Amino acid sequence: MKLFAQIKHLLYKEILLEWRSKYAFNGILLYVVSTVFVCYLSFRSTPPLVWNALFWIILLFAAINAIAKSFMQESKGRLLYYYQIASPQAIIIAKIIYNALLMTLMSAVALVVYSIVFQNNVGDWLLYALAVLIGAISFSSVFTMISAIASKANNNGTLMAILSFPVIIPVIILIIKLSKNAMDGLDRSVSWDEIGVLTAINFIVVTVSLLLFPYLWRD
Amino acid sequence: MSKNWWKVLASVFVLYSVVAGLLFKVPTLPILHESIRNLYYHVPMWFAMVVIYSVAVYYSIRYLQTGDENHDLVAVEAVNTGLVFGLVGLASGMVWANYTWGAPWPNDPKLNSAAIATLLYFAYTVLRSSLDEEQKRAKIAAIYNIFAYPIMVVLLFVLPRLTDSLHPGNGGNPGFGAYDLDSNMRFVFYPAVLGWIGIAVWIVNIRYRIRKIENKRNQI
């Protein structure tokens, strides 16, 4: 139970830090809204296939920018301090949960803005919202570990993109298929396959992160 | 000789499959015709690649456990060799696709997955070259390698099965065993797979020993 207490405290600290500065949230929010607007101005109206793909591409870049910060903003001294008081598993789980919360909030805002600005015809809003939720969680579980790896290597920005794109592609293919099913208003039983595989990928990624982070952690 | 029998066996198998693959009788199938012979050269590349990447992951795990620099050398050379096999697999597949499916790059999930898996391992080499300090590089590269492996498995073995694919065994298509691969072809196909896996392991072995000698020489 010590682990849960540590996760709770670390999560509280992350949220408190974010609440005080509101830097990451406001920055990413502005980024998402302005990207949506740029897309709107350049596309005006889109066929459903493009509408869906464009939304996920916007979210993908927002997620990379948001989550790349999660380890880079920690100073070396602070990392040493965490190392003394908490277990590495607690740290990575807290980061994943925090990023998942941040991404869920962000993608909810993005979805609202996007669907107001753009004309759309989503058949099954509930399933589409579920797809967005699963997408936000998958992005954060994959990118948190990648950002931990990239933060250990020196030149962060490009490396984060290079390392994360091949890893996220299977996830994003499945999510685009799932959300396309929701747009077409297909029967929900059609989408079980995608939801199942996405859950499995998340499960594997989180497990592997938990196993590997303790090695990454020590310098 | 007692240690090296598998190298001889692998060479014999590969030579045999190259010759027999061109000479033996193959079933006459519509669309495929004689291009079915590419099965002996294209498919073993992927078998060898997956085996070699598994070897790389095994040695990455060993490196994290022991911190022995040699394990890291095996892992990096295995990835390099796997990349070569992946590229040859892509190239031989493109030639085949050009003649049977009408385009070198038809929009097929298995092709796209294979290309992305290759990108994944190129990212590994980029990650390595971005780090200078040897132990740190070995550790971080090992971690990324282990992290990437399950994603590669999902890409190559799960995703193509969920969608429509031109490849046999995917998207509801029956596998080779059902009708394509008659018993005559098995006599060439299985030795070809084993032979190429053996050759791949041999290449890794040689590359690893070269790297070890280079390291030793640089230290003096």
Automatic annotation (TrEMBL), chain A:
> What family is it from?
Belongs to the CcmB/CycW/HelB family.
Keywords of the record, alphabetical order, are: Cytochrome c-type biogenesis, Membrane, Transmembrane, Transmembrane helix, Transport
A single GO cellular-component term on record: plasma membrane
**Subcellular location, in the record's words?**
Membrane
Q: What is this protein called?
A: ABC transporter permease
Residues annotated as transmembrane: 23-43, 49-68, 96-119, 125-146, 158-176, 196-217
Q: Which InterPro entries match?
A: Cyt_c_biogenesis_CcmB
GO molecular function of the protein, one example? heme transmembrane transporter activity
Record membrane topology:
Multi-pass membrane protein
Name its GO BP terms in alphabetical order. cytochrome c biosynthetic process; cytochrome complex assembly
The record, for Pfam families, names: CcmB
Q: Which organism is it from?
A: Pelobium manganitolerans
From TrEMBL, chain B:
Write down the species.
Pelobium manganitolerans
- Where found, per UniProt? Membrane
Keywords assigned by UniProt, alphabetized: Cytochrome c-type biogenesis, Membrane, Transmembrane, Transmembrane helix
Where is this protein primarily located?
membrane
**GO cellular component terms, semicolon-separated:** plasma membrane
Q: So where does this one cross the membrane?
A: 39-61, 73-99, 111-127, 139-159, 187-208
Question: What Pfam families does the annotation carry?
Answer: Cytochrom_C_asm
GO biological process terms, semicolon-separated: cytochrome complex assembly
Q: Look up and give the membrane topology term.
A: Multi-pass membrane protein
Name of the protein in question: ABC transporter permease
Is Cytoplasm given among the entry's keywords?
Answer: no
Q: Name one GO molecular function term.
A: heme binding
Which PANTHER family did the record assign?
CYTOCHROME B_B6 PROTEIN-RELATED, HEME EXPORTER PROTEIN C
Residues annotated as domain Cytochrome c assembly protein: 34-159
